[in-house]
């Protein structure tokens, strides 16, 4: 899957294996990141957390994650991304495992900060590899594997975590998830071994200075669009299990089934839409137009789906809304990083994605705290759902009108 930017350095089979392991890493990223939401129905009560306290703990992950995406993106353009992946995953796996031992909010926040530090490698690193190796006609499918992982991570995490929560409590969720993530290092060490050597590692070819990238208006405009893309997804990831159990009175088992359904649909449709977008491009469609159209459609649909969840009065209706949300999110997750790679090109993929991801993930700082405050101060979830539907609705307009023509920026 080598691009025209660099000569082929290793076999296509090995590169495909690397792409698959990157996707698996992203899946584990979302399993571990979302564990706090699965554990919330029991964890929140045992630790004595208010909605604001729980929202603060969720937000703490992004205090480290969002700004470090900028730094890690810069590093990915200058150092061996394969070694950085291994170090990042080892750190976040240990942070996940140790969360099972916390006894109060302070330590929980510290471990969420370390989790954010480790997980900050995922998207700048994957975009660096994909921009260097994957041609435009395969870009949709490579990013679709990552997009599917973003969905299947919460699906796998919710299903397995819900079963653990129901049978063993909330602490074993973190112990088991952290240990499984550590096992990823074994195949990665084998697959990436030749790629870590100087003659085949993703090269540094006159990387664009970070200061230059920070002065490009487009990266900030796309970052705002990314903020709108993340806001609704993070709400569903962290607050939905608690809402369904505590406000709707569903059992942990029913909550697990419904939440898993939405994420599973998202994962399947990400693969379908990734392949479809590649076929459109291969048939002669303009890639920039295709990816912009899918972003606008995804933002509009998830706004409708989130608003509808609040008014759904039966588990079947909730399930239907979450299926729509899963489909909508598949359009967003398949294309948001592909667009970053198109704008950046191989020279700036790490830095560009780092800046875009930093801006986009400030939604994870603002959203959980805003949601917690609205629940505590306004006496319910109504205003939280209203805001969470409004942000992606505005995002549809932003991707349509505010984001400039999608083409590689001039780094001169």
What do these coordinates show?
With 412 residues, the protein is mainly alpha-helical. Helix content is 80%, strand content 0%. Helix 1 runs antiparallel to helix 6 and helix 15 packs antiparallel against helix 16. The longest helix is centred in the middle third of the chain and has 33 residues. It is a multi-pass membrane protein.
Number of helices: 18
What does the largest sheet look like?
none
* Assembly context of the chains: single chain
Whole-Å distance between the termini? 28 Å
InterPro entries: MFS, MFS_dom, MFS_Na/Anion_cotransporter, MFS_trans_sf
Membrane topology: Multi-pass membrane protein
GO molecular function: transmembrane transporter activity
Keywords: Membrane, Transmembrane, Transmembrane helix
Layout: helices, strands, pairs:
Blueprint: H1 12-33, H2 35-46, H3 51-76, H4 81-99, H5 105-119, H6 122-133, H7 136-168, H8 171-183, H9 185-191, H10 210-214, H11 217-238, H12 240-247, H13 252-282, H14 287-311, H15 315-344, H16 349-360, H17 362-378, H18 382-402
Helix pairs in contact: 1-4, 1-6, 1-7, 1-8, 2-7, 2-12, 3-5, 3-6, 3-16, 3-17, 4-5, 4-6, 4-8, 6-15, 6-16, 7-8, 7-13, 7-15, 11-14, 11-15, 11-16, 11-17, 11-18, 12-13, 13-15, 14-15, 14-18, 15-16, 17-18
Task: Give structural attributes.
Sugar phosphate permease; transmembrane helix; MFS_dom; Growth Hormone, Chain: A; 18 helices; mainly alpha; disordered N terminus
Give a brief outline of the structure:
It is built from 18 helices and no strands.
